[in-house]
């Protein structure tokens, strides 16, 4: 048997939704597998190995060939600009990136401060608006930044908007929609093209069924 196809996936909602699509495509990954503390899950009957990774790390594993395929949010792909092929929009885990802040809070005229874990996305967006900004990098509880007066705005993922509302923040602008994408290592595509195309085609049909 050939070497297994290695897939890097994040835990949580994305894994659950992706496992559902994979099942429809004929790849049976147990939905409860992510409850295990193991970081590498073997599915020998499918000739697949699943590597459980942090969402921000999936693209790195795929770019460097540790994984042949990965499932990553479009936010990570936009932020990291890695050398991978983005081959399919899985249309799962939809959300969007937005600019938010305190209500009726004007931007500072000189280099507004923006808190975010997406410095590239934020910089690119405000540059397109003709704004020069100062990025304050934060990784957690970004909503705190405008509340305590650290920054004028935040740029973050919004799913339901509940976290913003509960912290007294409002959304100012939507930057871009985000869904999870199937990405492939370019060398793996050359070496395992047939297996990868088979998976991509199966998942593409599963996505169509889900969206119908």
TrEMBL record:
Gene3D superfamilies in the record: Periplasmic binding protein-like II
GO molecular function annotation: ATP phosphoribosyltransferase activity
EC id: 2.4.2.17
Pathway: Amino-acid biosynthesis; L-histidine biosynthesis; L-histidine from 5-phospho-alpha-D-ribose 1-diphosphate: step 1/9
Family annotation (Pfam families): HisG (PF01634)
Residue ranges annotated for the ATP phosphoribosyltransferase catalytic domain, each copy included: 54-203
InterPro entries: ATP_PRibTrfase_cat, ATP_PRibTrfase_HisG, ATP_PRibTrfase_HisG_short
Record's catalysed reaction(s): 1-(5-phospho-beta-D-ribosyl)-ATP + diphosphate = 5-phospho-alpha-D-ribose 1-diphosphate + ATP
Quaternary structure annotation from Swiss-Prot or TrEMBL: Heteromultimer composed of HisG and HisZ subunits.
Protein name (Swiss-Prot/TrEMBL): ATP phosphoribosyltransferase
Natural source organism: Halobacillus campisalis
Gene responsible for this protein: hisG
